[in-house]
Write a structure and sequence with these properties.
It is built from 15 helices and 22 strands. The protein is an alpha+beta fold and 544 residues long. A hairpin with a 2-residue loop joins strand 15 and strand 16. Helix 8 runs antiparallel to helix 10.
Length: 544
């Protein structure tokens, strides 16, 4: 199997900065000249200024928080690029071949690619990056490819070979994600080669390089003059760190920002108000994830599918989503939206039906006692605890709505707002009854989603533990991930998604979308195909 696409390498006429900032430790230093440009969006006619809620981080391509994904994707590139509709295109690998048994991937690397410091991109540096990641397999075990890599080889300067212990079809999807399999130049590696301890400098092959940075205040990215591909149409992106959403909106309205972009970076009310102002341009992306509610089947009360189905049917999803998100999110009929590979499956939606919900609870033995408001069975009340992110106003509003609607059914719901980190710990410890959860989005899904359905330790497999077909479901997931037969794989996905729909342990609520608000100086803007990628490819600005 071979894929190939030619992309022109257009040299960029720009001046290379003499020194890249050392990022390990994130010092608060920066030249007066560059700092001036960071505070002045008009410093270049072809520059834009956007905001972000938190510092960009250390820009280590192989590690996670606090580094921000959008910024990492500006500097570092993958072997394979994930494009709209799930199409996989050449990036730093111009082509690849997959062995018939699905275990050997041979990548032909693009020639004449330079890192931002002018050094060569080749198979040796690809292997060095892979080996640095694989040195810490446990850190990266969430990504399926990590558990099946057997060995990495340099075939020649521009050929790299990856051998797996077993077939795993989403190899290319996993290699397209923003981290950890992107490539740091030799000069960026620490002396001992262990990037888990930090990097010397952010040396990548991407279209951008970090020019100036002041922790928790701003970051300035300029075009990489050594970039092998088509140069960006703008020459500078300034990122101002503004943690507060209202302050962010005020800065935008004052003209201090050209772009506000992302998920939850401003309230939906603020987005709606800016949308109604013809001074600005607004856009909504296609669904990037699903807002779902987990019903933990390991709780004996929720082990009965009739109870789970009654809860699924027992709240008005359409009205709730419309009211809380002002119609900016869509009610979700299935756990995964249909804009991922293998998910365009016709599933029977679960309708809102209060009478049917009450009948199912009666059938399951949960009865309202005379004069009571909470159903009981064997002397136990039908009562659950719902935990939510206390900093997320949408989660809070949805939790309160569901609490009220289920209360009308005779189901008591206690609400507890938690810090997100505590909430995640509770999920992984299987310490919850009801929990708001989001899938990963492109390019991670659908394969990463079904992986956590079957793999303990992430909280989702445990949520599904009491459904009667769990062993069969896990086996179907294993087969889907290892199958080299496209038709069989589609059939397996259809069966997996149908089972999840019918069991109602994961209740889809709404499809999350990214928002973008920008000044009219930005003439062209497109959302990236990958949820975590940066939005600057192809962006254009008009002359002032």
């Amino acid at each position: 199997m071979s894929y190939q696409r030619q992309r022109s390498a257009i040299p960029v006429l720009a001046t290379l900065l003499a020194v890249l900032l050392l990022l390990a430790g994130c010092s608060n230093t920066g030249s007066n000249t560059a700092s001036s440009s960071a505070s002045d969006p008009a410093a270049s006619a072809k520059s834009i200024t956007m905001s972000w809620p938190r510092d960009i981080g250390t820009m280590n391509p192989h590690t996670y928080n606090p580094s921000q994904l959008f910024a990492q994707s500006m500097i570092y590139e993958p072997l394979v690029s994930y494009e709209k509709g799930g199409k996989l295109e050449p990036a730093l690998a111009e082509s690849w071949k997959i062995s018939k048994d699905g275990k050997v991937y041979t990548f032909k690397l693009r020639q004449n690619v330079k890192f931002s410091d002018g050094s060569d991109f080749n198979a040796e540096v690809v292997k060095k990056n892979f080996d640095a990641v694989m040195k810490h397999k446990d850190t990266h075990s969430w990504l399926g490819i990590v558990s099946v890599i057997d060995k990495t080889e340099v075939v020649d300067d521009h050929t790299f070979r990856l051998t797996l212990t077993e077939p795993y079809y989403p190899v290319l999807q996993d290699l397209s994600v923003v981290r950890p399999f992107r490539f740091l130049g030799e000069a960026g590696f620490p002396d001992n080669g262990d990037t888990a301890e930090g990097v010397k400098a952010a040396v990548g092959t991407g279209p951008w390089m970090l020019a100036d940075y002041k922790q928790d205040e701003y970051a300035v990215f300029k075009r990489n003059p050594n970039y092998w591909g088509t140069a960006p149409a703008i020459d500078q992106v300034t990122v101002k760190i503004i943690p507060d959403a209202e302050t962010r909106v005020a800065a935008f309205e004052k003209g201090e920002l050209d772009l506000i972009y992302g998920e939850g970076v401003i309230s939906l009310d603020a987005f709606q108000q800016l949308r109604e102002n013809d001074k600005y341009v607004t856009q909504l992306s296609d669904p990037v994830g699903t807002r779902s509610l987990l019903l933990n089947s390991s709780n004996p009360k929720l082990a009965d599918v009739r109870v789970r189905m009654a809860l699924h049917e027992g709240f008005n999803k359409q009205a709730m989503v419309q009211g809380i998100t002002s119609g900016l999110e869509e009610p979700a009929d299935s756990v995964l939206s249909k804009n991922y590979p293998y998910t365009n499956v016709d599933l029977k939606p679960i309708p809102y039906n209060v009478e049917q919900s009450k009948a199912l609870l009666d059938e399951a033995g949960w009865k309202l006692p005379a004069g009571g408001t909470v159903r009981e069975k064997d002397g136990q009340p039908l009562e659950f605890d719902m935990i939510f992110d206390k900093t997320d106003p949408i989660q809070k509003a949805m939790a309160e709505t569901i609490q009220a609607e289920w209360g009308e059914l005779g189901v008591k719901v206690n609400l507890t707002g938690l810090e997100l980190t505590v909430q995640i710990k509770r999920l992984k410890a299987n310490d919850f009854d009801l929990y708001f959860w989001y899938n990963y989005g492109a390019p991670y899904d659908p394969h990463s989603f079904i992986n956590v359905v079957a793999s303990p330790g992430f909280g989702i497999s445990e949520t599904l533990s009491a459904i009667p077909t769990k062993k069969q479901l896990d086996e179907q997931v294993r087969q889907a991930l290892s199958s080299t037969d496209e038709t069989k794989r589609q059939e397996l996905y259809r069966s997996i998604l149908t089972t999840l729909q019918e069991q109602s342990a994961i209740i889809p609520i709404s499809y999350i979308k990214k928002t973008a608000v920008y000044q009219k100086k930005i003439a062209h803007f497109e959302f990236p195909a990958s949820r975590d990628d940066n939005p600057f490819e192809g962006i254009q600005v008009t002359k002032p």
